[in-house]
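Appendix B, example 12.
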Amino acid sequence: MTDKIVAENLSKVFGDDPDEALELIRSGKTKDEVLAQTGQTIGVHSVDFSVAEGEVFVVMGLSGSGKSTLVRMLNRLIDASDGAIYLDGEDVCTANAAALRRLRLEKITMVFQHFALFPHKTVLENVEYGLKIAGVAPDERRDRARAALDKVGLSAWGDSRPAALSGGMQQRVGLARGLAVDPEILLMDEPFSALDPLIRRDMQNELLALQRELKKTIVFITHDLDEALTLGDRIAIMKEGRFVQVGTAEEIVGNPADDYVAAFTQDIDRARVFDAQSVMDVPEALDLDHDDPSTARRRLDDLRRDSLHVLAKGELAGIVTRRSLAQVEGRRGASLGDALQHEAPTARPDTRLSSLYGACRSGLPVAITDDSGEFIGVVTPEAVFDLLAQDNTTPRAPGTPADEHSADAAPALSA
């Protein structure tokens, strides 16, 4: 997969002598010690990461962790003190004014937390604004603005003023304005944090739906781990200007890099994070045309299982259990089909464990099938409950390799 964004050794110091501050932080001084000694603030320190084309990369951290500074460095709203940023191989940090303007107009756009709408302009005029700055002809920019409003479900509100819209609708306008210029990269700085919880969840779902259609490269900033886990293909946990851990939701919740990450993840509902594939076992099965109750019983004993799925001409036909076999064993002429239970729970590999509770309640293993219906694995209720019962408050053991994008482990979270 092609990298759309690459950041190398990225640092930002707010102060008059960044080199002095960076030298101190590299020597082991803390941010507070650097501030006390030099009066300068370390915003971001030695961050390396890449974002693949079409990926949603979420940077999550508490207030003051450096995440908003980081995202503003990507389009040079804030200049880096050290390091490099490449967009499709083009160095943003060394781009001249003309090149930077082109990047901002054609490749990368930003959606802000507080909407930043013009109150005196209509919704349609707000969405047109970026296109107007880019010099797009009036008829074309109006058509593109209307198309963007349609994508976010606000086509009927084009002639309204922003004040007539709810907070969630205003944020949709901000998103439409970003989409109207058809950017390759969307930077989103806590865009939903000012919204009520229910509206916020709606916006998250809407963004995911749009992403399935548009497949933009997105860098999304948030202080909310639930939001990060919902949206991110990968997530970077940031503390004191550095990345503590980078990984998928499953990697971060299931294998926290240190006490800081473990503290964030300890209250997360693991059933919403892990999917069937994470606990899937090999797809052992019987053949309806070749096996009989006796061979089925032996297979159960050999595999130490209480049930097995049954295939008919390669397709899933149902399941047999020790109980259903016992009811036909000894019966003259009994076939495997006589013990077959046709109603057997099934799921896809990406089904969240929270959606498997009903199936697990039956006590039967769940057959995992791919998009073509092929039987590719099995999930037992025991495997689901074992994973959910695991302690995810313990950080990764010392010496265990971290994700290749992760920074050095950060100090433990203070009480």
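The first strand starts at residue 3 and ends at 14. The first helix runs from residue 18 to 26.
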